[in-house]
Write a structure and sequence with these properties.
Layout: E1 2-6, H1 9-26, E2 31-34, H2 41-52, E3 62-65, E4 67-69, H3 80-87, E5 99-100, H4 109-121, E6 127-130, E7 152-155, H5 158-164, E8 177-180, H6 183-187, E9 191-196, H7 202-210, E10 228-233
EC number: 3.5.99.6
Pfam families: Glucosamine_iso
Enzyme class: hydrolase
């Protein structure tokens, strides 16, 4: 696992964004695994800047998102479908048919998991972008998730819902379930890039990097991957 420590969130975002930019330049047909939440927003802003400057094109890029809340329409301001549209997709030339996000609006959710997993099995993700939850989750693979799980319907941990309450008006509005890639899906990416910012992530980063490989800390599975890079700012690296 390669650890890159940078000064602050701005440098973290530009460093991560440049790594993704370099990949798109080398492989215009690359497949990206994408994450949501506050941490990757700066990296997406960087990618939009590079696109507007003419440095990269997303026309041949294919993307797969990690997860999606259940119970929110795609039009909801906090759906991950909406997040990706607002923060990246509507600003670049990515083709609609090349964007993949789990569908959890309605219908048979297990069937939706199976359909998304079939798409992932048919693809090869060149780079998977990850954040990390304060309890060590990646995607919405909460502590206790077996490392051999593929795309599944998960119940969100209380800690995760409490952490995400800041995006909603109340805890009651935070969804209790989600569809997420499994850890097996994540580890099948050719390369993994995890980014973390802030003192609140220092403990889980330390456990991920220096602790045992354990289902109690899902992100510790990255120790098993041959090409995993972790970019942290000084605050998130405080316990390394």
């Amino acid at each position: 696992m390669k650890i890159i420590t940078v000064k602050n969130y701005q440098e973290l975002s530009s460093t991560a964004g440049q790594l993704i930019t370099d990949l798109i330049r080398r492989q215009p047909h690359c497949t990206l695994g994408l994450a949501t939440g506050s941490t990757p927003q700066g990296a997406y802003d960087y990618l939009v800047e590079r696109y507007r400057a003419g440095d990269i094109s997303f026309r041949e890029v294919q993307t797969f998102n990690l997860d999606e809340y259940c119970g929110l329409p795609r039009s909801h301001p906090q759906s991950y479908f909406r997040f990706m549209h607002d923060n990246l997709f509507r600003h670049v030339d990515i083709q609609p048919e090349n964007r993949h996000i789990p569908c959890a609006e309605n219908g048979d959710l297990q069937a939706q998991c199976d359909a998304y997993n079939a798409l992932l099995r048919a693809a090869t993700v060149d780079l998977q972008l990850l954040g990390i939850g304060s309890n060590g989750h990646i995607g919405f693979c909460e502590p206790g998730t077996p490392f051999d799980r593929e795309t599944f319907l998960t119940r969100l941990a209380d800690k995760t819902r409490q952490d995400n309450q800041r995006f909603f008006d109340s805890l009651d509005e935070v969804p209790t379930t989600a569809i997420t890639m499994g850890i097996k899906n994540i580890l099948q990416a050719k390369s993994i890039l995890l980014i973390a910012s802030g003192r609140g992530k220092a403990e889980c980063i330390s456990q991920m990097v220096n602790g045992p490989v354990t289902e109690a800390v899902p992100a510790s599975a990255l120790q098993l991957h041959p090409d995993a890079t972790v970019i942290v700012d000084e605050a998130a690296a405080a316990l390394l």
